[in-house]
Amino acid sequence: TLLRLPRVEHYKGGGIMLTVDGNVQWGPTMAEVESKEDTSVSAEEIKKIFGYYSPLMPSFPKKSVIAYFSGLRAATFTEDFVIRAAKKVKGFIHVAGIQSPGLAASPAIAKMVAQILKEQGLQMEEKENFKPYCKKPVVFRELSNEERKKLIAKNPKYGKIVCRCEEVTEAEIIDAIHSRLPALTIDAIKRRSRAGMGRCQGGFCLPRVAKILAREANIPLEKVEKNRGSCLFVGRAKCLIEEENES
């Protein structure tokens, strides 16, 4: 049965979707904000989401919601990509207004930017040892029992579950920290391995993740960051730092 939702202003498509990790995702809505740092979630927007999409799943229990998310879109008034060389600064390329299609378009955008730089006289040489593909990381929860046994025999740290909600092992967290693009904050590890992404949202595993990160990155535990510039254990709150910078 196809259920059509009414067209409503300030909605950017969407619906109720199943993510690749098996979570049910509702939304989104769309609202203009003045600050480039405003990623807050309002009760009004949450109410809109439930009110608009509930006909698709009327029996969905609201108490089962784990978290609410919001993000900023670098929109332009032209509603189109802005990809061009700056008029006043040579070598500076504008890549802005990249909205929903940006992920799929990113390889083509990269080639376009490289071509613009080449036309501006930048000398570029293709790397002979460039590896265009990354090795897929181990996802322990997706393995069969037999595969898990073999992996644990090679590396016992795969047998140590750190995040019980998402069944993330210590070895997976270490892999994320030492990957080609290192995950060096709590949030980076969360996005890379899903440690802390479950129902408790890191309530149980966060201290262990922090200890592993401190050990593997060879930094004091009190220097572990939730995200860049936001200290987890010791330090001034981000909002206070922003207020100080404005004053």
SSE layout and pairings?
Elements: E1 15-18, E2 24-27, H1 43-53, E3 82-85, E4 93-96, H2 102-119, H3 145-154, E5 161-163, E6 168-169, H4 170-177, H5 186-193, H6 206-217, E7 225-227, E8 230-231, H7 238-246
Antiparallel strand pairs: 1-2, 3-4, 5-6, 7-8
Describe the structure.
With 247 residues, the chain is of the alpha+beta class. It is built from seven helices and eight strands, in the order E-E-H-E-E-H-H-E-E-H-H-H-E-E-H. It has helices at residues 43-53, 102-119, 145-154, 170-177, 186-193, 206-217, 238-246, and strands at residues 15-18, 24-27, 82-85, 93-96, 161-163, 168-169, 225-227, 230-231. Strands 1-2 form a two-stranded antiparallel ribbon. It has a two-stranded antiparallel ribbon with strand order 3-4. The chain has a two-stranded antiparallel sheet with strand order 5-6. Helix 4 crosses helix 6 (206-217). The termini are far apart. The model has no long low-confidence stretch (mean pLDDT 85).
